Automatic annotation (TrEMBL):
Entry superkingdom: Bacteria
Residue span(s) of domain SprT-like: 14-104
Record organism: Butyricicoccus intestinisimiae
Protein name (database record): SprT-like domain-containing protein
Amino acid sequence: MRDLEAVLQECERKLEAIHIPFNKNVTVRAGKLNARTWGRYWIYKNMIVLDPVFTDDRMQTFATENVLMHELLHSCNDCISHSGLWKHYAQKVNRTYQYKIKRCSDYKPYMNEELLGEFMQRFKYVARCEGCGTYVTQVRISDFIRNMDQYRCSACKGKFKRIK
């Protein structure tokens, strides 16, 4: 079980080193989130909530640091949205520490096969691109699931195949 507080302290140390002002009163915990969300910064609670998958030792530490750094940047003044100052800070962190912070990220590639299988059990519908292997997961039926042959992968233009 990964210690999220220790990872938070490491991320805070890195932000201080490159002079990015952030909320130093933030706490972190694992908890249930919306199916489309890896993490969330609750501004009124000064709390970052991460998907429990990030506390699992089978998830690469890089991914935990990346999502935690993303949410920590939201604690900076005027950084609630993914534009302007937040985007500038994210680029600065990416350049300095080789993170891959962006508006939307997929952390499934950082899971081992066993953890990925457990993670996929949360979803009723799973499709995979036949070209690049990207997964699309959904809890409810959608036009994408009903008419998968009419959709293409945005990364490689490949076709999707329904797995579950």
